[in-house]
From TrEMBL:
Gene3D superfamilies in alphabetical order: FAD/NAD(P)-binding domain
Family matches, as Pfam families: FMO-like
Keywords linked to the UniProt accession: FAD, Flavoprotein, Monooxygenase, Oxidoreductase
InterPro entries linked: FAD/NAD-bd_sf (IPR036188), Flavin_mOase-like (IPR020946), FMO-like (IPR050346)
EC main group: oxidoreductase
Cofactor(s) required for function per UniProt: FAD
Organism annotation: Acanthochromis polyacanthus (spiny chromis)
This protein's name: Flavin-containing monooxygenase
Signal peptide: none
EC number: 1.-.-.-
Length: 210
């Protein structure tokens, strides 16, 4: 009997679960409850795997934003973001330069009148695709681990910063201000689109360090 498994989430854990299901001979399904035309579909599965990551609970620290109670515009967590069309020709600020904030900022920059990406301390921009089209995670291999353990930490970070800046010059406003020369310890944003948006001078590029 064929068993069908619904894998919800296409991140690293979701993709790993899909591979395991295939190895076990199960037929995995990635659920889409509604398409762009509003058509809804329902399926019956033998099992459901929730692979949406550990950041699935929204955190809105509204007490850190004085005047938010009198703000007449709309604010919400990135979890509730669906489509950029609602924000066409509007002025928008995206707070936070995590992976969600970075991806949403790139998408919104194509339709908004003006978009700001607010970051407390900046971040290193890391391409998701490495050299020769190889997925980036494949570059984190034993050779890199050997260098990390045996090369002086400052030298290792300097080499890392030079590598990161070879694809995108971080001095344009996104270089982390709190951990210079220690790139290995700073937050890294995985994005292929932000550097190209920077070069084309799209309206995404208004950064505010809080």
């Amino acid at each position: 009997m064929t068993r069908r498994v619904a894998v919800i989430g296409a991140g690293s854990s979701g993709l790993a679960c899909i591979k395991c299901c295939l190895d076990e001979g199960l037929e995995p399904w990635d659920v889409e409850t509604e398409n762009s035309e509003g058509k809804k579909e329902k399926h019956i599965f033998d099992a459901v795997m929730i692979c949406v990551g550990h950041h699935c609970h929204p955190n809105l620290p509204l007490h850190d934003f004085p005047g938010i109670d009198t703000f007449t515009g709309k604010y919400f967590h990135s979890r509730d973001y669906k489509t950029p069309e609602e924000w066409r020709n509007k002025k928008v600020v995206v707070i936070g330069i995590g992976n969600s904030g970075g991806d949403i900022a790139v998408e919104l920059s194509r339709v908004t009148k003006q978009l700001y990406l607010s970051t407390r301390r900046g971040a290193w921009i890391l391409n998701r695709v490495g050299d020769n089209g190889v997925p980036l995670d494949l570059h984190f291999n034993r050779v890199l681990g050997f260098l990390r353990r045996n090369v002086p930490f400052g030298v290792f970070c300097s080499l890392g910063e030079k590598r990161l800046n070879s694809r995108f010059d971080h001095w344009v406003g996104r270089r982390p201000q709190h951990c210079r020369r220690t790139a290995a310890k700073c937050h890294k944003l995985g994005s292929n689109s932000q550097p190209s948006h920077q070069r084309r001078r799209r309206n995404l590029l208004r950064y505010r360090c809080m």
